[in-house]
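Repro case for the chain-ordering regression, as requested:
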Amino acid sequence: MGIYVYVTRRLLLSLVVLFGVSILTFLLTRVVPSRPEILWVGPRATAEQIAKAREILGLDKPLYQQYLMYIGAFVRGDWGISIRTKQPVLRDIASRLPASLELILVSMFLAVLFGLPLGILSAAKAGTVLDHLGRLVSVAGVALPAFWLGMILQLVFAKELKLLPLAERVDTITLLLHPVKHITGFYLIDSLLSGNFVVFVDALKHLVLPAVTLSTYPLGLTVRMARATLLEVLGEDYIRTARAYGLREAKVLGKYALKNALGPVITVLALTFAYSLAATFLVESVFAWPGLGRYASEAIMVVDYPAIMGITMLVAFTYVALNLIVDVMLAVLDPRVRLE
Amino acid sequence: MRRVFLLMLFGVVTFGLWSLGAQPNVAVYVYNSEVMIFWDPSDTYSNEIIAMNNMYEQLIRYDPFTDSFQPVLAESYEKSADGLTWTFYLRKGVKFHTGNELTAEAVKFSIERTIERGMGASYIWAPVEEIEVVDRYTVRFHLKYPAPLDLIASGAYAAFVFDPEYSDHEWFAAGHDSGTGPYTVEAWKPGDYLILKRFDDYWRGWEGNHFDKVIFKVVPEPSTRRLMLEAGTADYTNMLPITEIEALKDNPEVEIVTTPSFQNLLALFNTRKPPLDNVLVRRALAYTIPYQDIIDGVRFGYARQSRGVVPYGLWGYSDRVKQYTYSLEAARFYLAQAGYPKGGFKLLLTHVAGDEDERRVAELWKSTLAKLGIELEIRGMPWEAQVELGQAPDPTKRQDIFLFYWWPDYPHPHSFLREMFGTRDEILFNFTYYSNPLFDELIARAEELAGIDRAEAINLYVEAQNILMEEAPGVAIYDLKYARAKRTSLKGYVDNPAYPHVVFWYECWREE
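-- result from build under test --
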C-alpha cells in the first residue's frame, strides 16, 4: 500500500470518527434531563416565554431533524448560539481558545524541558538515588491533584512571599494603561509584537503559577515514558554492540538510544495536549483563567448543548488531527506500519 | 546582542515607572460568574443588574431603610387621589451616553418597549394602561388599577430608561449600552472582564472623589476571590461562602458589611400528594425544622428566622404573623392526630445542586425527621431539572418538598404570596400546588390597595400570611442576611437590598 492510499484511508476514517462523535454527543446532551428553553429565557419565565423559546431554539422539532439542522449549519461554520452566554459558540470558543493554548503550550514546554532530562537521567542511572528521585517526581506529578497544588502555590508565592500574582492572565489595570492590540490572542506574542514590554512581563509573571501547576501531569508522564522506553531500548542488541565497540556512553544515549525512545513520548504528549484543551477547568477556575476548560465546565453544568457540542467537536478534531499526524509520521518513517 | 538586551531592560524599567505614576482611579468588583449575558435593558433579569445599574438609571430609586424614594431621572412625581394616575417631572439636560437628551418620549418608548418585549421582569408593568407624554419633560402613567407605581418605576430590573435611537436588540447584544448612568462600556471580554469608564457628561457631574473606571472580573473560585480581596487587587466581592467570610473577619484591611436581604429560603410542601395533602402532617413538618441550628450551623448567624413568608425589612413583614418553632413534641402531636404516630413514611426533597447552604439545611432537617420515623431523601438537581420535576403533570410524581430561595422582582410583598401560594391554572412557581379562594381574594385586594392605602394593604397581607401559617402549604425557614466583603479603604458603599448585589460605584470612593 502506497503512502497516499494510506493517508487517504486514514482521512476517511477520521471523518467517520468525527461524524460518530457528533451523533453520540448530540444524543447524550439531549437525553440528559434538561430544559434548555428555561435557561434561554432566564429565571422566572412565564409559560408563554418558554413556549416561544422552544420555537426559537427549534426544540419543538423531532430530534433527528434538530441534528440534521445542527450538523448542516456546523459544516457551514455556524456552530449555533450558546444557551448560556447567548453568543455564537464559535466566537465564544475563539475568544477563549488563545488563553487555554497559551497556558497549555507553556506548561507542555515546562514539562518537556524538565521532564525529558530527568527521564533520561533516570534511565541512564537506573537504580541510583537519581533514578528514585525521577520516579518520585513522575508518580507525584501524575498523582497530585492540580487544583490543590495550585492553591498551595498561590498561598506560598502570592500571599506569603508576594513574588507572583495570585490569579488572572494579566493585571487588568496594567492592560488598561498599556492596551495590547489583539493579533493572535496570546498575550505573550501580542505584547511582544506591539513592543509592549510592560504587559509582556506582567503576562509572563501571571503565567508562572498556573503553568507550573498544569505542567505537573505531563511532566510526570514525560519522566515515566522517557525512562521506560529508554530502559527498553538500552537493553537492545544494537546498543550492546555500540557499547562493545567502545562508543562513548553519551553518544550511545544521545544519538542511538534516544532517537528510538522518543516516539512514544511524543505520542503521549500529543494526546495529553488534546485532552488538556477542555480538562484544565480546575486549574483555570483556581487561577481565574478565562480559558476553554472553564467555558466547558460551565457549559456542562447547565447542559448548554450547543456549547458542549462545539467544544467536543473541537477536542475530537484535535485528537483526530494529532493522531493522524503522528501516524503519518510513523508511516513515513517505518514502512512496516503501512502494510498493516 | 547585549545592546538589544540593555535597550529592552531600559524599556521595561521606564514603562514600569511610568505605569506607577499614572495609576488611574479604578475599582474592581470580583464576581463569581459571568456578569453580562442579557445586554438588552428590557430583558435583563439576572447578574447583569450589578453592572447595568451603573450604566442605566430609573426614574426614581427606592430606599427601603426609610421607605422613601430618591429622585433620579425624575426630579419629582405625584399621584392622583385614586392612585390611578402618576405624573413624573423629568430632570432637564440629562444626556444619554449616545449624546441625545432624555425626554418624556424616551421614557415612554423605553417602558413600552420593555412591556412589548415581554421578557424578564417586564410584567411588573402589568397595571399600566397607557403612558402619556404631557410635554417634553413630563410623562404620565394611567393605570388599570391602583398600584404602587413608584415601587415599580424604581425596580432593579425592567425599569431602565434608554435612548430610543439606540435600542436595537442586536446592537445591545454586541456589548453596547445607551443609558444615562454615570458609567458606560469601555471594554468587554466575555468570560473574563467588563470595564466601565466614566461618562463625562453625566448629569451629576464629576466633582469629588469618584472612580474613573470600574472593572467587573469573573473569578469563580471563592478562595481566589478572598485572596484577591486580601491582596488589594479587588475592592469588593459578593457571594463568599460563610467560611471565607469568617476567615476574613479579623483582617483590618477587609470589612464585612451585613445587611438583611429581601431573600428567603422556603420549603414548599406538595399539597396534592399524600401524606402532605394532609394539613396536620404539614403542620407537624413545620415544627420539625431546627430553625436556630440552621441559622447558627449553616449561616453562622447571617440569617434570621422567617416570620410568615415576607422577609424582614420589606413592607408587609409583621410581628402579628405567627411563627413556627422547633418542637418535636408539637410535631409528634400533629403526626399522631394525622394517623402517623410512628412516622413511617418517606419524603423527597429537591434543591438546587451546588448550593451548599440548601444541602446542609436539608441534612440538618433530615436528622430531626429521622427522630420521628420520617425518612427524607435529599436530591440536589440542576435548577431546570428541579423545575421540570415540580411541573410534572401528575402531582404524585412530583417532589414532596421543594427547597429554594425567593426574592421579589421589585420591593413588594405580593410576589412572595402570589407566585408560590396563589391559585394557578398552570404551575410556574406554585410548587405548593395550593389553592384557597379566600387567600386569593385577600392578596388581590391587598395588591389593589397597595398604591393608595399601604396600611390597609399590610393588614390584608398579615391576614393572608396567617392563613398560610395555619394551613402550612410551605414554610419560609430563614431570611438571608447579605454578608459582603470589601476593602476597608472602599467608602460610601450602602448595601441596598432593593438592588441585590449592586454597588452604585458613583457613590463610592477610595480612602487610602
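Ordering looks correct now. Chain B is about 30% helix and 25% strand.
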